[in-house]
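Problem 12. The chain below contains 333 residues. Write out its predicted structure in token notation.
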Amino acid sequence: MESTDSIETQLLRYTGADDISHSEPVQSLWSGYGEIRRYGLHFSSEQAKGPPSVIVKHVQIPDDVAHPRGWNTSRSHQRKLRSYRVESNWYQHYAAICSAACRVPNLLFTETYERGCIIVMEDLNTSGFSERREQASLQDMHKCLHWLANFHATFMMKAPDDLWPLGTYWHLDTRPDEWAVLEDQALKDSASVIDKALRDCPYQSFVHGDAKLANFCFTKQGEEVAAVDFQYVGGGCGMKDLAYFVGSCLAEDECKNHEMDLLDAYFIALEQALTEQKSVITGSEVEQAWRPLFKYAWADFHRFLKGWSPGHWKINTYSERLTREVLDEINGS
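Solution.
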């Protein structure tokens, strides 16, 4: 199934709607692998009333791949294909486990085809999560930290079956090409040690894997958040999500000024979440293991970024300082 008409036919069959009232693009997928669209649904019968709209993530393998930064390799292609399978598995087997404290879209249905797939899910806009942020206030960030803490608590010590064994899109094992061209020799030499510290730390959970500000949806007054885009969800230390999220929101001076307060807020939320879930693991135990690894998680992403896009704006003095601290620890300085 590749045509728009066939998607609409599937939507009508699965939702019971009488017709499609409209459709509109939400965004294109990375490197031309398809698009996300919003479809409006019309129900003539009150008894068969369904959602006014749904979101369809339609993945189509392109004939010609055009990566925005030139990484057009077979490995890159296979990683993307796997990421969409992972996301489909996530929505089928794990999304329903998430509570309102780590809200995600509900799955309606998913189908896989020879050259792609579709994932049809709840339209969070119609469920009250209609706001997006290009810049985040500290209050906004605290709401997202609360989401991350509850997400990590929900999947603490769970096996990431049918997901990425180790989540995040920059994980070292899936990024040998970027590592190979990394010019920072000290960081290159220590990349596997940094990765091992994160993968071997106690209290592994699931990580969202792409927990940037753009993937959080806010209610109008900003009291609640939900998250989308689970292509790189998998096992890992929660500090990976935290470091990546903070770096997506703040400039280098702000990172330095707010680092400790944001870490404190996250671990307070994590302790509360674990308590509410009646976990045998305490927040203080996790904090003791995870807090020292915040800078390791930062250095891990910094390693990827310096190989993938050496001129990227996120390569700054704050990132360099945290990374040098990690390298000094590894080398016993």
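Discussion. Residues 252-276 form the longest helix (25 residues). Students who got a different answer should revisit the alignment rule from Section 12.3.
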